[in-house]
From TrEMBL:
Main location: other
Record domain Protein phosphatase 1 regulatory subunit 21 N-terminal: where: 11-112
Biased segments, Low complexity type: 95-104
Coiled coil: 3-72, 137-196, 558-592, 696-730
Species annotation: Canis lupus dingo (dingo)
Residue numbers spanned by region Disordered: 84-104, 605-637
Protein name: Protein phosphatase 1 regulatory subunit 21
UniProt-recorded Gene Ontology molecular function terms: mRNA binding; protein-macromolecule adaptor activity
InterPro entries: PPP1R21, PPP1R21_C, PPP1R21_N, PPP1R21_six_helix
The entry's keywords: Coiled coil, Endosome, RNA-binding
Keyword RNA-binding attributed: yes
Localisation per UniProt entry: Early endosome
One example of a Gene Ontology biological process annotation: regulation of intracellular mRNA localization
Amino acid sequence: MASAELQGKYQKLAQEYSKLRAQNQVLKKGVVDEQANSAALKEQLKMKDQSLRKLQQEMDSLTFRNLQLAKRVELLQDELALSEPRGKKNKKSGESSSQLSQEQKSVFDEDLQKKIEENERLHIQFFEADEQHKHVEAELRSRLATLEMEAAQHQAVVDGLTRKYMETIEKLQNDKAKLEVKSQTLEKEAKECRLRTEECQLQLKNLHEDLSGRLEESLSIITEKVPFNDTKYSQYNALNVPLHNRRHQLKMRDIAGQALAFVQDLVTALLNFHTYTEQRIQIFPIDSAIDTISPLNQKFSQYLHENASYVRPLEEGMLHLFESITEDTVTVLETTVKLKTFSEHLTSYICFLRKILPYQLKSLEEECESSLCTSALRARNLELSQDMKKMTAVFEKLQTYIGLLALPSTEPDGLLRTNYSSVLTNVGAALHGFHDVMKDISKHYSQKAAIEHELPTATQKLITTNDCILSSVVALTNGAGKIASFFSNNVDYFIASLSYGPKTASGFISPLSAECMLQYKKKAAAYMKALRKPLLESVPYEEALANRRVLLSSTESREGLAQQVQQSLEKISKLEQEKEHWMLEAQLAKIKLEKENQRFADKLRSTSSGQGLGLAQENPTGANATGQEETSARAALEPAHSTSLIGILTRTSDNEVPDVESREDLIKNHYMARIMELTSQLQLADSKSVHFYAECRALSKRLALAEKSKEALTEEMKVAGQNISRLQDELTTTKRSYEDQLSMMSDHLCSMNETLSKQREEIDTLKMSSKVGEERKGVCLQNNI
């Protein structure tokens, strides 16, 4: 069990490890892809930085040139402002200078126009670059957000994997500790098993030596006293009386009683159903009190009137079957002869059902053809006709299987013993089918009755008859359900009880052998009852041995017996003399006592009257006391009679002498009783020898079983040792593999953490570069403004 649990755990861990490995490969691919994407983004950022630097340089140069041009324009404007008042003063001189100034102005205008166009072009380029920079920055920010989300997801996955790895590590450590504890307990159990095997080997050696001697003795007794083995041949073995199983018989009788009650309920329901159906035919569709019914229905009612002669025998057959199962019989299929009569009664009832089925179908068709029949009622009649066909088919199926079960009690070759279980299961299926059919009949008949009650021509007699039929159908349904559930609950017991029969055989061969076996069983029961008579009280063994020695010695020497008789007679005469002597003494003592009483009475009379009255009252008590003393003395003087054999021989009356013939008769009777006791003891010794032979045989079987169990235990010990070594090897290999896996997983986690830290640094650099680009862009815009 432990190895199986370990293998299951190892398989689960291997599956988890393969899953984690696949997830790890997927994560590696994702990390590599992210690294490639980050490298491409870095290159793009470098290119963008370079383009930004070039644009910045151009912007710087343009701003510087613009500043120069602005300063030059200011100078020119100042010069122009200075030259205007001078031109007013000297117009003449100014005309020449105006020509020069116009030429310079035209040159400056052209130059200014060029600069304005160039500035406009630069502004357009700057705007385009700014828009492109914004677009790139927005893309980079969205990419950065997605990368951050992916990084967070990867971090969550990594955290989950680390948790799983830690949990698996803890589980593996716990499993390791448990396996170590199990290995220690297994080692202890192995040591205990070795000690036990050594003890068992010693015991087996002693038992083998003891039983081998007993086996030789028993074999010699068997070869000498057993004429033949009747269990060797199945024909002879079938005549052996099996062990009486009272519990089995009581159980079978209880089951038969329950089945009888169910069959009685079913029989009453069937009787009610057929009788109420007959009443309905007399009422509907034509009332026989008003008009004559059709000849078909007349014939149908005539057949239905005979239902009791077919239904009642079912109850009687089941009752006879129940009465045949008693506590003293052996109940198997070969001995249940009354099952055949029940099968015959069921066959006669099925013939009755086949006979009334066409009339029932034609009667339903006649109802459908009547003017009162509606379409719904016609549909219900068709359904009922189908149900009646199913009911007859189910009864035929049930009768077939019950007939097969009745074959072993009449025809031994009619049904094989291997087919008993299948036949019983088919009987249960047929009973369930009968229950289903009755449920359908109940359902359809209730619908039909409800439709008929709604008809305007429905009479009270028809309504009550329909209700009675419905109640009988419901009773039939309930009875069928009870029988089906009862049989399905007990079918396993029926199948198991089929093996109840003679020992070491497949069962009773024929009904004749089963009948002979039952006769032998009755004879055996009568013999056992005769043996149960109470034994007479016997003499204790030691006393009987002493008496036997005495009798043997007395028979060997008659003189000793005669001497004993003479001694006993002398003792008796002495005792009689002593008795006479003591009787005389008692008479003298009595006379003295009477004289003393008389004298005492005279003294009392001479005393005062009051004292005389008191003494007169005390005197009767004294007389009673003296009477009691006299009786006790007489009882003490009488000789004690002995109840033993010698006491009987020596006991005589006061005036009789023992007779020789009566004494010989007593000795003869005693020896005859003793011979009877010895013969009974001899029979008891024979029965004990047979019992000891059976014990020797059982001990030899137990020895063989013990040797087999020893071999099985040694093989189990070998297998257990191999399993222990294999488990230890697996433990070491699993420890190493798990340590290697843990180290690899820790290295992989470290590498993943490093890559994630690098990605975070790159993301930080990208953020910094984007911030620097935004600052530069702001500076450029300020400069342009």
